[in-house]
Amino acid sequence: MNVTSKNINELIEELLAILDADAEHLESALNHLNNLREGVIKRNEPALEQLLESIKGQQEGRETIESRRQELRRIAAARFGCRADQVNLSRFMQYLPEGMRQKITQRKATLEQLIAKLKTEYMGTAMLLSECTRFNRILIDSIMGSRCGAATVYNANGQAQRPSGSGFVTMQF
Questions:
Q1: How far apart, in whole angstroms, are the C-alpha atoms of residue 117 and residue 105?
Q2: Could you give the dihedral angle defined by the CA atoms of residues 81, 86, 88 and 90, in that order, rounded to the nearest 10 degrees?
């Protein structure tokens, strides 16, 4: 099926709007990760709760964007004569004049940069949370005298303070 100029332009404008929304979502996710790390480091529970509410509030908008993307893929698939799962940026670019290709290429490059940055920030946040978990586990084991972790606590001179298995609190289950 041949695609008319007006129809392809409408599809491209919708695609550009969706790609811009994706970029905004990625930037928002980067800000959320930064706020999460800051809240964890500063132990700011109200800020973390506010962050959680903000993320929940953005979920509906994200679902709207995703439904727009799926509708666009369905329409483009009908126009391009293929299945919806075969519609991607490369397929769109086959039908575009050079000026439109450049716009999509720029947005694609921006998204790739944001995704790379998000992966890096995500890994940093995951490592921070992992270390917090490890530290909390060691702290609890030291306080409770749990034998499952062989934590050694050192004083300011670098000498072990307590033998393993002797906690600050005696507990029975």
A1: 18
A2: -80
